[in-house]
Design goal:
Elements (H helix, E strand, L loop, with lengths): L2 H22 L2 H18 L4 H11 L5 H28 L9 E4 L1 H8 L5 E5 L5 H10 L5 E4 L5 H11 L5 E4 L4 H9 L3 E5 L9 E5 L2 E5 L1 H10 L3 E8 L6 E9 L10 H18 L35
Parallel strand pairs: 1-9, 2-5, 2-8, 3-4, 3-5
Antiparallel strand pairs: 6-7, 8-9
Helix pairs in contact: 2-4, 3-4, 9-10
Main location: membrane
InterPro entries: LipA_acyltrans
Protein name: Lipid A biosynthesis acyltransferase
């Protein structure tokens, strides 16, 4: 067996053991442990501390350094608790009891679109517990098609995909997924995408939390070419562990517009939706993610052409 495969399998076993331990601990205790781990990550080891400080300073310039430090600690707490919630979800959330953990906000809009005779593009960001969104929409009877990059570790990839597809979510590979997406839209399916992934220097650049960020143009193109409405969803924690609000922040329907929006306009629209939910619950966003890396080449200033030297006038 190849050394990398052995290493991958050992990492997989370690992760499975960790998940088993987390599942054996009550969520209330997981919450307290997550707070302790957040303190270690943020205050002691300062993991990605410079990136966190930079992101929060640009997004919330009105905050004091101490306020940003507390917000960074709360964001670590959210991330740690999010992992615990995902581990507990297969045992805690079922078709008969999901309503005890999830409140709905304007979700009837999404249901209406999902039951219609058109395709739907559902968008969400790295906000709240987005991993549970696909799991819970499947519980509600609305399976989605999601594009995701395969993990480098094949054992972990299979394990994560098993969780994601447990309630009907169908995972499409990131590379070469265009024909599958086209077929999903043709068959009036529901395509669910994370909208805030860096698209590189050639993406569509719009302002996000006071700085330009790159977005994939394909998201807007899917709606423009198929006529699919774009629904921005969120799943935010509203209380203790495993207590969420699933809601619709906004919907853009090209069929209801006198003049359909272009790529940049649609991108700006869903970016504004994401910024609204982030500003309401900033601790539930992935600030450890380098969302604003700008790989564009700096524009070279045009140098003035040299002028021929003037001859001195005769005395």
């Amino acid at each position: 067996m190849r050394p990398k495969l052995v290493t991958d399998y050992l990492v997989y076993l370690a992760v499975r053991l960790f998940i088993c331990v987390v599942q054996a601990i009550p969520l209330s205790v997981c919450d307290q442990i997550s707070k302790f781990l957040a303190w270690l990550a943020n205050d002691v080891f300062k993991i990605r501390g410079k990136l966190l400080e930079s992101n929060l300073r640009h997004a919330f310039p009105e905050m004091t350094p101490e306020q940003r430090k507390k917000l960074a600690r709360r964001s670590w707490h959210h991330l740690c608790l999010m992992i615990c919630e995902i581990a507990h979800a297969p045992r805690k959330l079922h078709t008969t009891n999901w309503h005890k953990s999830i409140q709905m906000h304007q979700i009837e809009i999404q249901i209406k679109e999902a039951l219609g005779r058109r395709p739907v593009v559902v968008l969400l960001g790295h906000f709240g517990n987005f991993e549970l969104m696909g799991y819970c929409t499947g519980l509600l009877g609305f399976p989605t098609y999601t594009v995701a990059r395969p993990l480098d570790n094949p054992f972990l990839h299979d394990y994560l995909e098993e969780f994601r597809s447990a309630t009907g979510q169908i995972i499409l590979p990131k590379q070469g997924s265009a024909p599958y997406i086209e077929e999903v839209l043709k068959q009036n399916g529901t395509l669910a995408l994370l909208c805030d992934q860096n698209a590189g220097p050639k993406g569509c650049w719009v302002e996000f939390l006071n700085r330009p960020a790159s977005y994939h143009k394909a998201i807007s193109v899917f709606s423009m070419t198929s006529g699919a409405p774009v629904v921005f969803l969120y799943m935010r924690r509203i209380g203790g562990p495993m207590q969420f609000e699933m809601g619709v922040e906004g919907i853009y329907d090209p069929a209801l517009c006198d003049e359909p929006k272009g790529v940049k306009e649609v991108t700006q629209w869903y970016n504004d939706m994401l910024e609204r939910v982030v500003r309401r619950d900033p601790e539930q966003y992935w600030w450890v993610h380098n969302r604003w890396k700008d790989e564009r080449a700096a524009k070279k200033k045009k140098q003035p052409e040299p002028q021929p030297a003037k001859l001195a006038s005769a005395a």
